[in-house]
């Protein structure tokens, strides 16, 4: 039940941020019922704009993790070679 509460709070925050009125949507237990097509299209446009930003952030984070793994593997090899030659 706790997850439903979090989702409801998050959705309410989003709709307040988008400045939607109480008559534009209704919150069910597990769904959001959008009354006006305008509200649906504005929500979808906001999602599409944010999706590109999020996609770039995820890609950058993933590439950073891969590079960090490569760096640590190379560093470990260098340390092993130094220990052998010491």
Keywords:
86 residues, mainly alpha, 2 domains
Description of the structure:
With 86 residues, this protein is mainly alpha-helical. The protein folds into 2 domains: 1-35; 36-86. The protein has 2 helices and 2 strands; from the N terminus they run αββα. A two-stranded antiparallel sheet has the order 1-2.
Short description:
This protein is mainly alpha-helical and 86 residues long.
Biggest sheet, in brief? 2 strands, antiparallel
- Classify the oligomer: single chain
Cα-atom Rg, whole angstroms?
Answer: 23 Å
User: Given the structure, what is the number of helices?
Assistant: 2
Content of β-strand: 5-15%
The run of helices and strands is HEEH
Mean pLDDT: 85
Global structural class: mainly alpha
The helicity comes to over 70%
Taken together, the total number of domains comes to: 2
What is the molecular shape?
elongated
Q: Kindly, what is the distance between the CA atoms of the first and last residues, rounded to a whole number of angstroms?
A: 61 Å
Low-confidence stretches: none
Strand order in space, largest sheet: 1-2
Write the layout of secondary structure elements.
Elements: H1 2-17, E1 25-27, E2 32-34, H2 37-84
Antiparallel strand pairs: 1-2
